[in-house]
Amino acid sequence: MGATLAQRVAETRLADVVVVDVVEGVPQGKGLDLLEAGPLLGYDSKVIGTNGFDETAGSDIIVITAGLARKPGMSRDDLLAANGDIVKKVAEDTGRLSPKAIMIVVTNPMDVMAFVAMKTSGFPRARVIGMGGVLDSARFRSFIALELGVSVENTHAFVLGGHGDSMVPLPRYSTVAGIPITELMSVDQINRLVERTRNGGAEIVALLKTGSAYYAPSAATLEMVEAVLLDKKKILPCSAYLEGEYGVKGAFAGVPVKLGAQGVEQVVEIKLSADEKAAFMKSVDAVRAGCAKFM
Length: 295
Prior knowledge:
Strand order of the largest sheet: 3-4-5
Largest sheet: 3 strands, parallel
Radius of gyration: 19 Å
Shape: globular
Strand content: 15-25%
Structural class: alpha/beta
Number of strands: 13
Oligomer: single chain
CATH class of the largest domain: Alpha Beta
CATH superfamily of the largest domain: Lactate dehydrogenase/glycoside hydrolase, family 4, C-terminal
């Protein structure tokens, strides 16, 4: 995931990249390989591989992808303890070296790891963001396009709540060329796509058997990185630390946010039905349960 994101950032000429990994030689080799692709693809982005964090000093964006990958049969929450220790170390060291950076957390269970990163780094809530909603919404959009035989460019979708089995896809706010999918599909069709979206990561893990998704997650993270570096003020579903929005205080949850140079510049509150709100709060409670282990 980290190496694929580095490739995407370099190829889109957004920034220079430092890739960090604990295995000696791996980041150095991948960094050199990506650097040597520059003349062929026409980018001047510098890509450096290292086993330490000193080279990351002064970064504008920190993306935390470090952690154990899921294996078949594992839930994101099964990774809690091991990845918590890893994220603490990375957030502490990178945050100290780049105190003004925006921190994007990808490591699973993502919402809990975003909480760990914020508490460890001491960063304000606007500058610690979890990547989950962008990916989950992209998966929902893909399944909608496949079901209806339309271009993915015509689809828009919202998935709120935690990045896990309790996530909350919102069919009412998911559209094709502006038309809500509730007018284009049966309830059974929608329910099937919602369930597939919730299990999107597990479906790929089961197929790969030795790893988890990285093409779509890296593309989702790239969209967030681009929104920050180019100050696009883009409305994206991201995991943000809520302080009263949606009736939630003191927890990370996937919600629409305005993403720009300052990080989360606004939490956009949309109206939820009673059932949607109940599902959202259930998802938040699941995240809180994981965060309680790091209080």
